[in-house]
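W.,

You were right to be curious about this one. When I first looked at the sequence I had no strong expectations either way, so I just let the prediction run and decided to look at it fresh. Below is the sequence, 179 residues in total, followed by the output.
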Amino acid sequence: MEPDLQSEEYVDVVNEHDELIRSMPLLEVRRIGPEVLAQNGEYLRGVCAFIKNGKGQLWIPRRCKYKKVLPLALDMSISGFVSAGETYDQALAREAMEETNIDVQRMPVKHLGLLRPRDGINFFTNVYEVASDEEPEYNSQEFCESYWLHPQELLDMLSKEQSVKNVFVVAVKKFYHPV
């Protein structure tokens, strides 16, 4: 039976080569946890982006306290799962609009690279950089405050955070670690 993509959000599950195995409901993924999938050699696809201004600062939001996963944690400027049948670029455009009201098709976007499970995360995640000097009009259901931080300031803050997405730390270190 084909998934009904209209009534419930589905995500693609892929193998260690980022090849499609199957699709499954996102609610089911959240129930069992991406870590369990990864233990079985199954992974999800995700996207994240950092909004970077002309001063070299990254726009970093704080998740709202009502989030089920990592409430009040610092987060990437834009992040989310790739929905079933979606490309990484389509997922970036959707997540950017949902979370920050940014149309990335009208802005300079740079693909920084792909993080893989061998990088110490449970996903295949394409990482992007969006150039903008403007404070995003973020979704207040997602975020409660934000900061413009230089990469080293961000790494310092992340080292003091009690909880943070592992992919966030890996992405900052890989793509923004000061030389």
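Here's what jumped out at me. The radius of gyration is 16 Å. And, maybe more interesting for your project: The chain is about 25% helix and 30% strand.

Coffee later to discuss?

I.
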